Amino acid sequence: MPDNFKKLFSQLSEIHIPDGLADKIAKEINHRQRRMIFIKSSLFVFTALFSGVLLFLATASTRVAFVESGFVQYFSLLFSDASAVFESSGSFMYVLIQTLPAFKIAITTGVLIIFLLTIRWTLNNLRKINLLNNL
Amino acid sequence: MSNKTPTQLISDYLKGDNEAFDILIAETLPYVYCYLFRYVYNEEDAQELAQDTFVKVWKKIKHFDAKKNFNTWLLTIARNTAIDFLRKKKEIVFSDLVSDDNLEQNDFEDSLVDDELIPSEVYEKQETTEVVEKSIKELPLKYREILILHYLEGFSLSEVAEMLKLPPNTVKTRKLRGIRLLREQWIDTK
Predict the structure, then answer these.
(1) Is the interface score ipTM higher than 0.90?
(2) Cβ neighbours of A2 in B, within 8 Å
(3) Scanning A57, B12, B75, B121, which has its CA 20 to 30 A from the CA of A2?
(4) For A10-29, what is each residue's pLDDT tens digit?
């Protein structure tokens, strides 16, 4: 006879675990995993496309800004009239920085980072889908 | 059966081995299911709760701290899932888990309870396990869960306190009150 509660509790009847419960749970998790990956992938593909279009527009706009601000013309002086540029290199650098379309460069860089990240996430998700399909 | 510990299986799963999570489910399900069954005493509910528990484990697995005990973490999730379920079914209210006011006895009286000795009346019955199971089922949840975690699942009182987010003294008091109630029920059934 048991002499303490621990022994007494250990005598409790064993609980029967329903057949196939572990498989049922594993399937449910697998199903949720697929659904989550599908939703994520759709979101990433959409974001990648959207940021791709934005990147194209931002790049075009930045290119125009480089021309309109006079940066390209000033910069070309480096190759056409290098001696004059080196004589007044201080003021040349100042003008060059002043005409740099910094805001548009920042926007384009931001969009580029988002685009590259979404491409990376999309590829990761495709790899996960591939792994799940191979199970 | 896998030779790997739950922490190793989690690590494998996070590295991309999906089968590792299936093994983790298969190995820990008996443990979780028995615990949940004694929480709700209904096979269908216990199955549903076991599934919900593992879905939550899967969702939170990235946040599992490998330095902590996996079984403690797992049963904490199982317990929270069971409590949410019972609350939705309105079978328990918050006070069932936090208040000890409905018992008139004081801590001194509780301290006189000996948790090692079992009334001889219990052994005189041939259906010992049935009597014990019935008595446990009829215990209020706040006592039942502590006795199950401590005596059946083998957690120390400090681990139980950590799981239930209760002060260790409260856990000790509830354990002793649970034992006292069990004894009273055994004497009544005699």
Answers:
(1) no
(2) 118
(3) B75
(4) 777 778 888 899 999 999 99
